[in-house]
Design brief:
about 425 residues; alpha/beta; 15 helices; 10 strands; about 45% helix; elongated
Length: about 425
């Protein structure tokens, strides 16, 4: 049995292995070994000492009781003293070994904790908001796209190669991308936001796009040219948080991969502008965009009264929609800045009104997400409110709202939820 001798422990039992070793070392060095040495030097220092004399003279006792051979008793005491001295020395060495091992374990844990902290800091420093953008959303490729549809791939390729040194005009999402990338200038020696080109072009036909990126001074270095195939396959591989494309098919596939995505709606008007205060302003619809479409299903299938009753009696938060993760990433960037000097401002623009607004507010609070402005319009048209907010882009799942706003605000249709079935 380990340490099986009998003793009364008031504190010792609850000590750590290292502290027990310290107590044992203290007891051995301060109490045990000095006692053994005292017995040795006081009992055997000279011939007349209490242990030496009985042995030298083979002294016996005149008493008839007990051990009457005194030299044997003295010999046993010497053996006891020597064996205990050895025991205390071994105990001391073992305690020192335990203390050393525990110190090494503590040092290793501290080293690992420091490494993990450094990795966390490095990961935080390398953390990026990543936007995936299609070539047709970034640049105006209507003319070349018409050639592709009318005359086929060969004519399209010849046209692009012949014009590869001719800079493309900005597309629907160009100013949005430019404004997003400008936020990087607010960080010292760090790229906080990255934009990646995801294109159905080949690298050959895509050279004109690459040249146009350089001509416009856009900091876009990574790209995937997929040769006619959908680039959605690489959205998750690049770690994209938001994918903007002119292809609804690609957008739907990206959403199915749990990535926030929207179809950039093209029009003939110049709706790409920079808000007057220089902030990047992004507006979101609520249901089927930030939140799931569960509540919208109730409204669609059972009517307004059932919807209101469902929202008022619900005890749980709204489920997350396709844009929740993107909103969280935006919020992380916002948290890097003082609220009065933040380069990003968000708005929730929803058809909800009281009392269904309470569940929205509680859900955002539970998520720990900040929305700068919340507009509960109760079915009013969103166009004028978005114009007053000076939104750089507005995301909504319903095409009627997109059509209503697309001539004044850059709009992204989110093909998700019951309204898009």
């Amino acid at each position: 049995m380990k340490e099986g001798h009998v003793r009364v422990d008031v504190l010792y039992t609850n000590f750590s292995r290292k502290n027990k070793a310290k107590v044992n070392l203290f007891g051995s060095l301060i109490l045990g070994i000095p006692l053994c040495l005292t017995i040795f030097f006081r009992g055997m220092a000279c011939k007349q000492c209490v242990l030496n004399q009985p042995i030298i003279n083979f002294e016996t006792s005149q008493s008839t009781q007990g051990m009457n051979i005194k030299y044997l008793m003295a010999g046993f005491l010497i053996i006891f003293e020597l064996t205990m001295l050895i025991q205390f020395l071994v105990y001391s060495l073992r305690s020192l070994k335990i203390i050393k091992e525990e110190n090494r374990v503590i040092a290793e844990k501290e080293r690992i904790a420091l490494m993990e902290k450094e990795l966390e800091i490095k990961a935080e420093e390398n953390r990026k908001l990543i936007i995936g953008i299609s070539s047709r959303a970034l640049f105006n490729l209507d003319e070349s796209h018409d050639i592709y549809e009318k005359d086929g791939l060969d004519s399209y390729r010849d046209y692009q190669i012949a014009n590869e040194d001719k800079t493309l005009e900005p597309g629907e999402a160009f100013n949005l991308v430019k404004k997003i990338l400008d936020i990087n200038s607010l960080y010292e020696n760090r790229q906080r936001i990255e934009v990646i080109l995801l294109s159905r072009n080949t690298s050959d036909t895509g050279l004109r796009i690459r040249n146009s990126i350089e001509a416009h001074g856009l900091d876009i270095s990574r790209a995937a040219f997929c040769g006619g195939a959908s680039p959605h396959r690489y959205v998750r591989d690049f770690g994209v948080h938001l994918f903007l494309s002119s292809s609804m098919e690609d957008v739907k596939l990206a959403i199915e991969s749990n990535v926030a995505a929207a179809t950039i709606i093209s029009n003939d008007n110049d709706n790409s502008f920079l808000s007057e205060d220089g902030q990047l302003k992004i507006a979101f619809d609520g249901d089927a965009v930030i939140f799931s479409d569960d509540s919208e299903k109730v409204f669609h299938e059972e009517g307004l009264e059932a919807f209101i009753e469902n929202e008022v009696t619900a005890k749980t938060a709204l489920k997350e929609g396709p844009f929740k993760s993107f909103l969280v990433e935006l919020n992380d960037i916002q948290n890097d800045f003082d609220i009065n000097n933040c380069p990003i401002r968000t708005a929730l623009v929803t058809a909800r009104s009281a009392p269904s607004d309470k569940r929205v507010i509680k859900t955002l609070r539970e998520w720990g997400v900040r929305i700068d402005e919340s507009l509960f319009l109760g079915g009013m048209s969103k166009k004028d409110f978005l114009k007053s907010f000076q939104a750089d882009i507005f995301f909504d799942d319903q095409k009627k709202h997109i059509i209503d706003t697309q001539n004044t605000i850059a709009s992204g249709h989110v093909p998700y939820g019951i309204k898009n079935q």
